[in-house]
Each structure stands twice: as structure tokens, then as C-alpha cells.
């Protein structure tokens, strides 16, 4: 097949992204302009602020993506992909309008991509030449998502577990802030991991047992875990009255419980697959929280207990391609471009879009 070059935009939440990727798996550029500092203090993404930031940043991101890739949009780009959903409607519209207008002006085909499918298909790009084989399980653990997906083909996915309340990443962030941990460029979650992993020779105080939400069920719930920490702190009348050993017990207890929750659900997913005669050999774990080394160790251990004929292979795509990015959007559009299965310029957005 011919080499096809895609320019892709992603603007479904708070990152403005543009990238250039080819069908021979070359990532020519990957530009991400973050805006989390703008949303600090709103307890989430503020839609109007996010829309304005996308409007300001998208032209800059596109210009940089083309320059870094050293391509001319008129000569070298064969198609334009964008995130069609799910996401914040106003945010999605910034990327999709830009994509459609540019495509119309240049007479190029467009493909609108499902954001979650793009996350799920990333390992087919990043684990080349040994990509996971369908059907595979992917666990997406980030600030935005806590999701366990079964991918059975390039176009068919099934959500096995998701969360109705807080994501695992935000839960780590909240506990880290409650404990008053100082954090660096890697963020509050990474600070919690570092604090919990410190050397400590004395005994730790007993803080009681963390809850085990949705026990035996395929679903995630993190709110009760950080609420438990909140109650422990409140019982001592505030973090200022808590000594280092107690803080450490809370941090370790939380990290252990948060990861145990993932282990339990992953094993349940394997049971579900076995009952449905689906033979899974590959597990992919992605998202910001997947950089946690305790999590990596625990998941590797837990997969050893699964009853299979061949050992399960566990992989972690590089963090830069696990967080929101336009490379995954370009990659997820590629099989459609190659099959000439394009969308119309009139295609609408899907802010809510099941997988
Ligand atoms: O995928 P990601 O970078 O972007 C969003 O979805 O926002 O995920 C960020 C999340 C944050 O909540 C961050 O605290 C968490 O991932 N995180 C971690 C670690 N590194 C990042 N959580 C636990 N342990 C880590 N080492
Ligand atoms: Zn995402």
C-alpha cells in the first residue's frame, strides 16, 4: 500500500494537540499544549476557559506540528483526522471545525475518531513490531479515565469496567494534596508514590482497613478511598496534628488499596473472558497512573495467577502517548483512510458517544 500521511487534531478536553503520523508508523511530530494551570481552583475542567484556550492554541499547535514534521500541508498531507467525541462539545468543535475547514480548502479527506478507541489502539502503534494480539485487554488509568476495555478488532470494543465517580488519577491527586505533599513537575500522584515508597524502619500505626468498593463486581469506584483518608485526617482534627508515621501509613494504605482495586477488577475481567470463551493473552496498561512502579509490579504479579496455557504479556505504552495526544487520533484514523472510508464534511460531533 502507498504511504499515507495524516495531520490530526485532538481537543476533546483540556489539551490542545496536533500531530503528523504516516501509515508506516512514523511519528513525524506530536505537539501538546496543556492548559491545566488555567483550570486550577475550578475542581475540574472549566468548559468556557477550555474552549477559549483551544481557540488560542490550536493554530499554534498546528503550525508547530507541521514545522517539526518538516512537511508542507499542501504537498505532503493526505488526510486530516480529528476527535469526534466523546468530550466537551465546545472543545470538540474547535478541533473539528479547524480540521474540516482546512480539509475543504485543500480538498483533502477527513476522518472523525472516537477518543477512547484511539487510546485503546495506541499499543498497536507503540508496541510495534510485537503489538498485542486481538482480543486484548486495556486498562486506561489517568486523570480523565479509569477504564477496562476489551478490544476485539480495530473497530470493536467493549467496556468491561468504568467509574461513575472519581478517576484513579484524581483520587491520587486528592490524597496527595490532603497529605500536604510537595510536588514537582511529575505532579501530585507521582509525589504520593515517592512518599509512600520511602524507607521507614519503625512500625507504622494502625489506620484501619480501607474500603473495598464494588467487591466482586466489574466496575471501578475511587471516591470512597480518598474519603477514607479524609475521615482519618478529620478524626485527628487536621493534617497539622498528624505525624510522619501516620501520614506514611495513610499514603501506603491508599496506594495499596487503589492498586488492589485494579488487581481485583483485572482478575474479574479474565474470569468474564473465560466464561465467554474469549482467550486473552495481552494486557496493555496506559494513562498517567501507569507510570507508578508499585502498580506495575503488582499487576505483573497478579497476572501470574491467571490460569492460562501461555503466559500473559503485559505492556505499558510510553507515557507521552498515553496522555491525550493527536498521534493516537491520527493512528486510529489510518485504517479508514487506507480503506478510503472517509467522513463527509457535514459530519456532526458526538460529545457523548459509547464505544
Ligand atoms: O494520563 P494523564 O497524564 O492525563 C490526564 O488524564 O489528566 O494522567 C494524569 C494523572 C494525574 O492524576 C497524576 O497525578 C497521575 O496521572 N499520575 C500518577 C503518577 N504519575 C502520574 N499517579 C500515581 N502514581 C504516579 N507515579
Ligand atoms: Zn483521554
Automatic annotation (TrEMBL):
It is an enzyme of class 2 (transferase). Binds 1 divalent metal cation per subunit. GO terms for biological process: mitochondrial tRNA threonylcarbamoyladenosine modification. Pfam families: TsaD. GO terms for molecular function: metal ion binding; tRNA N(6)-L-threonylcarbamoyladenine synthase activity. The keyword Metal-binding applies. Its EC number is 2.3.1.234. Gene3D superfamilies: 3.30.420.40. It comes from the Eukaryota. Its cofactor is a divalent metal cation. One of its GO terms (cellular component) is mitochondrion. It is found in: Mitochondrion. Residues 26-331 form the Gcp-like domain. Its main location: mitochondrion. Keywords: Acyltransferase, Metal-binding, Mitochondrion, Transferase, tRNA processing. It catalyses: L-threonylcarbamoyladenylate + adenosine(37) in tRNA = N(6)-L-threonylcarbamoyladenosine(37) in tRNA + AMP + H(+). Belongs to the KAE1 / TsaD family. Homodimer. Required for the formation of a threonylcarbamoyl group on adenosine at position 37 (t(6)A37) in mitochondrial tRNAs that read codons beginning with adenine. Probably involved in the transfer of the threonylcarbamoyl moiety of threonylcarbamoyl-AMP (TC-AMP) to the N6 group of A37. Involved in mitochondrial genome maintenance. This is N(6)-L-threonylcarbamoyladenine synthase. It comes from Hypsizygus marmoreus. The gene is GCP1.
Amino acid at each position: 500500500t502507498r504511504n499515507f500521511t495524516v495531520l490530526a487534531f485532538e481537543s476533546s478536553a483540556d489539551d490542545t494537540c496536533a500531530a503528523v503520523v504516516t501509515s508506516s508508523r512514523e511519528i513525524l511530530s506530536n505537539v501538546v499544549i496543556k492548559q491545566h494551570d488555567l483550570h486550577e481552583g475550578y475542581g475540574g475542567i472549566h468548559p468556557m476557559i477550555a474552549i477559549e484556550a483551544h481557540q488560542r492554541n490550536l493554530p499554534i499547535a498546528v503550525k508547530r506540528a507541521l514545522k517539526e514534521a518538516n512537511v508542507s500541508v499542501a504537498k505532503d498531507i493526505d488526510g486530516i483526522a480529528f476527535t469526534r467525541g466523546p468530550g466537551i462539545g465546545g472543545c470538540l468543535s474547535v478541533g473539528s471545525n479547524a480540521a474540516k475547514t482546512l480539509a475543504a480548502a485543500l480538498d483533502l479527506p477527513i476522518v472523525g475518531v472516537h477518543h477512547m478507541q484511539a487510546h485503546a489502539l495506541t499499543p498497536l502503534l507503540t508496541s510495534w513490531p510485537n503489538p498485542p494480539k486481538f482480543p486484548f485487554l486495556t486498562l486506561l488509568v489517568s486523570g480523565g479515565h479509569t477504564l477496562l476495555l476489551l478490544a476485539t478488532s480495530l473497530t470493536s470494543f467493549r467496556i468491561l469496567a468504568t467509574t461513575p465517580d472519581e478517576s484513579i488519577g484524581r483520587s491520587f491527586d486528592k490524597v496527595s494534596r490532603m497529605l500536604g505533599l510537595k510536588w514537582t513537575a511529575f505532579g501530585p500522584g507521582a509525589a504520593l508514590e515517592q512518599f509512600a515508597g520511602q524507607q521507614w524502619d519503625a512500625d507504622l500505626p494502625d489506620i484501619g482497613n480501607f474500603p473495598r468498593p464494588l467487591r466482586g463486581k466489574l466496575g471501578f469506584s475511587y471516591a470512597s478511598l480518598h474519603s477514607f483518608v479524609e475521615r482519618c485526617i478529620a478524626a485527628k482534627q487536621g493534617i497539622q496534628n498528624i505525624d510522619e508515621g501516620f501520614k506514611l501509613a495513610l499514603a501506603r494504605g491508599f496506594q495499596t488499596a487503589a492498586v488492589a482495586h485494579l488487581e481485583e477488577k483485572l482478575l474479574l475481567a479474565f474470569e468474564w473472558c473465560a466464561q465467554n470463551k474469549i482467550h486473552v493473552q495481552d494486557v496493555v496498561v496506559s494513562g498517567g497512573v501507569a507510570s507508578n512502579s508499585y502498580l506495575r509490579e503488582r499487576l505483573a504479579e497478579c497476572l501470574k495467577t491467571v490460569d492460562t496455557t501461555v503466559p500473559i504479556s503485559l505492556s505499558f505504552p510510553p507515557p507521552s502517548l498515553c496522555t491525550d495526544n493527536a498521534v493516537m487520533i491520527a493512528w486510529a484514523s489510518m485504517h479508514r483512510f487506507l480503506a478510503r472510508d472517509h467522513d463527509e464534511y457535514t459530519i456532526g460531533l458526538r460529545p457523548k458517544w459509547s464505544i
